[in-house]
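Rotation project, supervised by the postdoc (A.L.). Task for the rotation student: set up a whole-complex structure prediction and record inputs and outputs verbatim in this book. Inputs entered:
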Amino acid sequence: MTEVVENKTSNRSKLRDVWDQFKSHKGALLGGFIFFSIVVVVMIGPFFWPFEANGIDIRSRNQGPSLLHPFGTDQLGRDTLARMMAGGRTSIAVGLAAMALSLFFGSFIGVTAGFYKRLDGILMRFTDLFLSLPLLPLLLVMMLLFREPLSQAYGPEKGMFVLIVVSIGITSWMPTARIVRADVLALKEREFVLAARSSGTSDTMIILRHIMPNVLSPIMVSATLGIANGIITESALSFLGLGFPPDFPTWGRLLNDAVDYLQQYPERVFWPGLAISLTVLSINYLGDGLRDALDPRMRKR
Amino acid sequence: MLTYIARRLLISIPTLIVISLVIFLLLNLAPNDPMAQVPLTVPPEVKEKMREALGLGQPLYIQFIKWVVQLFWVEPQVFIDYMFETNFSEGKQRVISWQTRSPVMDIVVQRMPQTLWVVGMSYIVGILIAIPIGIYSAYKQYSVFDQVGTFVTMIGYSVPPFFTGVFVIVIFSVQLGWLPSIYDTTHVVVDWDTFKTQLKQMVMPVMVLALQTTAMINRFMRATMLDNLNQDYVRTARAKGLSEWTIVMIHVLRNSMIPVITVIALNVPAIFGGAIITEQVFKVNGIGHQLIGAIYANDLPTVQTITFMFAFLIVAFNLLADIIYGILDPRIRYD
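Outputs recorded:
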């Protein structure tokens, strides 16, 4: 990333500018802090927490919140906090991986369409086509069709992970592609690209050295939104019962399990729902702040 | 205007065909055996016969053409027969569900009104809430109203419908007992009391979906209003001495509506996705509920057709948005 700007001093001042603008957005700062805390708790929490996510203790089932089990236990006596942390790991991992994949597709198609005029028409029609596909039904269909073979190939958990990440990745790249293409179209006509071309730089090098660093900011903003989208979609699939296997906790799965006990223990839907909502909310605020901070027009104000 | 509409219509036909091809290929190239549920005691040659009876013995392209003909040619004929009591479709093969052995379209026609009713209501409610709030938030930027509005919008944008749905059920059905948690589709409105019951059971699903719509539209409404309010033509209008109401509601609003219409149309897929989940939460027996049922039952023709119906609705809404676009902005018509 250091070759983004010409020399080191201006690099530092640009990052400082971005950070100053980001700091002035209180919501974004708070969002970033909450998201970071959730990630830390979910990642290192299980090492310190005495209960296992799948540790069944039938004698202490259906307990309310107590000092021993702060979030209570479920119908098999499994500790809800431990399950929430294990579920969060999966949900956030799915979100991150799906985001990376969709960014890769989106930037690739966006840059190709923007840079090569011949491919622009067909790639954008392709994007429009994907935008008018009914995505959730198609995701459900993909879950139905590829669940068995992938589970056999990689084991039930890894197979589902691959399947969910790939299906979310290939159904959520379109907004990124559109934004990146628009930016590349404008960048391509700039003098530095012309200069690079006249000095004999190949297309690949122009894209890698001159175009990509300049479209990083819209890509970063889509990245935050992509994580949020990945988490929501995974939870929706798990909620509909077409996600991970039942004994493998994710936030959506926990919510789905809790719905069965809605009449007796209505408080149980609260924790996973709150975790999903809070994570997505903080990511969205983070994205908002990032967009403002990376937009030079906003910074001048 | 007429040529503009005609051109849009013509573009949407290849889109629909390509979408149907995508859906068909996804379902048929997948390594999945529709005969997997058949008991192992059935001899292989009988199984082969069953496959042929389901139309699975033929090459893929013939299967695709047959499906397209059934969907685009036979089903409209059935519709015409139904409307005008003719008999064009007599003896022609329709798309049959493997689950119920009845034509898929009949089921879709039974289920569609519930979905459209809930989705349509929530869209209208969402738009009616979002647009005034967006206008006022932009007009009074950074006021308390704007701050609160933006925060509520952010929540609506972030909290998924499967949580809001369950959450309102916990509050209004389980704790307070005011509203029914299950949507009764057999309910018929005949007088004031039944109308009230209908209203009660519609409130939660519609509001859950409307929250999503409101959040999306409000965000864009506020942003485009802000863009337009700082433009030169607003200053000119003020200098001419027009009233603030005329400036905001006529000049700025009309210009701001164009991107908002696009957002409304582009988010139709998201709303139908939300509708599938909302139907599942509130047990509305709409088309999404049927889709989930068909997926669990491995009923490929139903899954194919319903997924295609969703695509059809999405393309139809995009077409509608394009037409409204043309009405709002004359430049687009002559493009």
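Student's summary: Residues 41 and 277 of chain B are 38 Å apart (CA to CA).
Supervisor addendum: The radius of gyration of chain B is 24 Å.
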